[in-house]
Amino acid sequence: MPHRTEPMPVKHWSRAGLLLTTWCNAACASCYLACGPTRREDMPVESAVAWWAELAAASPHGCRVHLTGGEPFGDWERLIALCRRARAEGLTGAELVETNAFWATSEPLVRDRLRQLDQAGMGKLNISADPYHQQFVPIERCRLAARVGEEVLGPARVQVRWRDWLDEGFDTADLDERRRRDLFHVYLRRGRERMNGRAAGRLAGALVSMEPAAFADISCSDSLLRSRHVHLMPDGGIMPGTCAGILLGRAGNKPIAEIWRELSHDHAARAVVGPLAAGGPLALLGEAVEHGFVPDRYASKCHLCWEIRRHLASLHLHGDELGPGWMYEE
Ligand code: SF4
Ligand code: SF4
C-alpha cells in the first residue's frame, strides 16, 4: 500500500492537558515523559491561565482542560491558585486533575484540598494506581484519596487508573528487584503503557520482538493530527496527546489558534510530523539510518518511533519538532 502523501485535515484541539510541572516525587518506570524528583520545570500561573484561555478560543468546540504533570499537587498553592484564577477569568473549570496521591497523608488534609478544588471548579479527580506507581507511593494513600474523594465529590467524579489494582494491589517498593520486574512485565503485556520517554527505555526491552518492517505503512495521522487531544509542556511546547517528545508548536510567542492554523497548512512539509503522519516511523527510519542509526527489534511502532527520534535528537536534528531536550537525554 503506498504512503499517503495528501495533506490530512487537522482536527481542532478540544481536549488539552496543562503539564504544570515536570517535578514528581516518583520516577515511575512507566512514565511516558521522564518526570521525577530532579526535574524542576514549572508552568507559571500567568502562562497557564493565558494558554487555558487561548485553547478555549482556538477551537469552535471550546477546549476541555485537565491539569497534570509531573505531580500537580507537588505545589499545592500554585495548583489551587491556578484553579481559582481560571474561574475568576470566566474559564470552564478543569475537566480533571491528575495525581498519584502521594500527598494524601491524612483524611482531613484530603477532604480540605478536594473541597477547595471542588469550589474552584474541578470536575474530576484522577488517581494513578498501578504496580509502577506503587514503587514510590504507598497504595493506602491512593485508597484514602479515592475514598474521601468519593465522599466529597461523589463516586462519578473520581477515576482511578486502575481500579482493579487499587482494590487488589500492594506496595511494590517492598518487592525485591526481580519480583518487581516480573510483575511489571505481567502488567506490561496488557498493553496499557505508552512506549515513549522513560517507559521506552525501562520497559520496552521486555517486549522487544518485531522488526521495523512489521510497522510498514502504518500512518500516524490519527495520533498527530486528528486526535483533538494535546499536552502543553511548562515552557509552552505543544505535544500530541499520546506522542510525547514531538512538538507541534510552542505557545507563548504567538496565539495557540495561529499555531493550529500553521500546523493545518504546513504539517505535510514538516521534517518529523510530515513523514510520521504519512507513513509512521518507517517513513523517518531512512533519515535516521543515514545518520548512523542501526535498526534493532522493537516492542511496538511507538517504541521504534521513540528510538528513531532519540537518535535524531542526540544529533541535534529537528530541534523545533523534537523536544523537550531533557526527555531525550534521560
Ligand atoms: S508516571 Fe506520573 S507519577 Fe509516575 S513519574 Fe511520571 S508523572 Fe510522576
Ligand atoms: S509511532 Fe510515533 S507518531 Fe506514531 S503514534 Fe507512536 S509516538 Fe506517535
Protein model, in words:
- The chain contains 13 helices and eight strands.
- It folds into two domains: 12-193; 195-227 and 256-330, no CATH class.
- It has 330 residues and is of the alpha/beta class.
- Helices cover 39% and strands 10% of the residues.
- The relative contact order is 0.15.
- The chain is globular.
- It has an eight-stranded mixed beta sheet with strand order 5-4-3-2-1-6-7-8.
- A hairpin with an 8-residue loop joins strand 7 and strand 8.
- Bound molecules: iron/sulfur cluster (2 copies).
- One iron/sulfur cluster (SF4) is lined by residues 196, 220, 223-224, 242-243, 276, 280-281, 301-302, 305.
Sequence-ordered SSE layout with sheet pairings:
Blueprint: E1 15-19, H1 45-58, E2 64-68, H2 76-88, E3 96-99, H3 107-119, E4 124-128, H4 139-153, E5 158-161, H5 163-168, H6 177-188, H7 197-202, H8 221-224, E6 229-232, E7 237-240, E8 249-250, H9 256-266, H10 273-279, H11 282-290, H12 301-314, H13 325-329
Parallel strand pairs: 1-2, 1-6, 2-3, 3-4, 4-5
Antiparallel strand pairs: 6-7, 7-8
Spans of at least 5 consecutive residues with low confidence: 1-5
Largest sheet: 8 strands, mixed
What's the helix-strand series?
Answer: EHEHEHEHEHHHHEEEHHHHH
What form results from the Cα inertia axes?
globular
Helix/strand/pairing category: alpha/beta
Output the number of helix runs.
Answer: 13
Strand content: 5-15%
Could you tell me the mean pLDDT? 95
Strand order of the largest sheet: 5-4-3-2-1-6-7-8
| Gyration radius, rounded | 20 Å
State the end-to-end CA separation: 37 Å
As a percent range, the share of helical residues equals 25-40%
Ligands bound here? iron/sulfur cluster
Beta strands, count: 8
Query: Total domains, how many?
Result: 2
